[in-house]
């Protein structure tokens, strides 16, 4: 298979997968609308770091080690689910806070929180292993050179980055942001509830 064609396929599949609403979308759009595009971009750094770890584990064949270890898989799964539930509950709780309290809270977590949250949201879902395993099994030729595997992982990360940057700037645009700010408390409750439901789904789903 031509390497350029392979990388285009990987990029296309990854953008299609990233377009599906989920925790990443909620986190990025929330940061863009209620804080700033810069916060959303930092969250994307964390998300992409998680993506690169999962995709690298799969191309190196280590993904199967996690999948074949029920205790390790379940540990990651429950920690990830717990974090999503906690994050959702935090968003709902903050929607009932006063503006002054919320502003004080926002300024105290600017430094590293978006990156950490983005990373934890992504790395806490071991089902990503199944996605990459099936995708790479179909697309990547057997016994591919190391540089091909590296190119696949990097392309995967770049494709995700472009999509999420687009989402960040879309929701950070003034018309969209102003609308969301007017409805901020209600949207935080909806997004928080969605994260809780996604966390519960992750917790009860079997590999």
Overview in brief:
By secondary structure, the chain is mainly α. It has 11 helices and no strands. Helix 1 runs parallel beside helix 9.
Structure description:
This protein has helices spanning 3-18, 23-34, 37-59, 63-67, 70-95, 99-107, 113-123, 127-139, 146-172, 174-182, 184-204. Helix content is 83%, strand content 0%. The radius of gyration is 18 Å and the shape is globular. The protein has one domain. Residues 100-111 have low confidence and may be disordered. The protein has 207 residues and is mostly helical. The protein starts with a helix and ends with a helix.
Uncertain residue ranges = 100-111
User: Which radius of gyration do the C-alpha atoms yield?
Assistant: 18 Å
Average pLDDT for all residues: 83
Distance between the termini: 31 Å
For the record, the count of structural domains works out to 1
* Strand residue content: under 5%
Strand count, sense and closure of the main sheet? none
Helix and strand element order: HHHHHHHHHHH
Tally of helical segments? 11
How many individual β-strands? 0
Tell the overall outline: globular
Helix content: over 70%
Class per helix and strand makeup: mainly alpha
């Amino acid at each position: 298979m031509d390497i350029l064609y392979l990388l285009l396929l990987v990029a296309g599949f990854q953008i299609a997968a990233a377009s599906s609403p989920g925790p990443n979308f909620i986190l990025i759009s929330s940061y863009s609308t209620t804080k700033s595009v810069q916060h959303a971009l930092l969250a994307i750094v964390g998300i992409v770091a998680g993506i690169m770890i999962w995709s690298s584990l799969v191309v190196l064949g280590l993904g199967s080690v996690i999948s074949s270890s029920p205790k390790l898989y379940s540990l990651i799964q429950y920690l990830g689910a717990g974090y999503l539930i906690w994050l959702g509950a935090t968003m709902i709780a903050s929607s009932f806070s006063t503006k002054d309290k919320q502003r004080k809270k926002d300024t105290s977590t600017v430094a590293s929180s978006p990156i950490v949250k983005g990373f934890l949201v992504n790395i806490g879902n071991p089902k990503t292993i199944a996605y990459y395993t099936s995708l790479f099994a179909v697309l990547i030729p057997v016994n591919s050179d190391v540089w091909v595997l590296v190119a696949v992982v990097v392309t995967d990360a770049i494709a995700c980055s472009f999509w999420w940057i687009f989402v960040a700037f879309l929701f950070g645009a003034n018309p969209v942001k102003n609308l969301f700010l007017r409805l901020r408390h209600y949207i935080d409750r909806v997004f928080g509830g969605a994260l809780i439901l996604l966390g519960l789904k992750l917790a009860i789903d079997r590999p």
